[in-house]
Task: structure prediction
Amino acid sequence: MVLYHSYMKITYISHMGFMVDFNGTKLLFDPFIKGNPKPGPIKSEDLSPDWILASHGHGDHIADVEPIAKRTGAKVISNYEVTNWFGAKGVDGHPLNHGGKADFDFGTVKYVNAIHTSGLPDGSYGGNPGGFVIWKDDSCFYFAGDTALTRDMELIPMTCPKLDFAILPIGDNFTMGYDDAVIASDMIQCDIIIGCHYDTFPYIEIDTEKAKKAFAAKGKTLLLPALGETIDL
Ligand code: NI
Ligand code: MN
Result:
């Protein structure tokens, strides 16, 4: 008798903020509602995560981490420097560094390379930026964080289970654009991509129809959920 059925529900908050219901555990990624010019319908107070995962120290990825963590007791998973920075504010966390993985009650989290920067809002050193690969049994996804296209992405299918989907930045200017994200999807061997980090600011406005066509031309699917929309995968 099979009692355990794996599932993932992904809610797009805004920018690179997502809430992933991972087999019943709520994982909040890169919340940026405060100060966001396009915050969407979901308020910080609406979010009750079990864990908060922060890819790097930039304000557009951690703006709401402290208030949500303090209200809910959720712990922060990030790199060593970012978790220490939150630790000094009274927010508990689990530090990772690149290439390292750890087992949690909900599954395994691996912190993988990103090509970007990671300074914290007050000028503190935020270590180096990263992304996360998260899996339990056959369920596995990649949250890239802010990154350029990098050959390091080829290591993901070599070292992690097969990806069900990946969350990639597509807005260009500060991260890879959708054209490079198509190549990234080949490197990580994944055909279902959720795009983010676009259209929040003028610098990262893109033609979303062209972006979808670029993925479709390679037989891949680019999902662009509306702000506040939930998709089941
Ligand atoms: Ni950034
Ligand atoms: Mn960013």
In short: The mean pLDDT is 97.
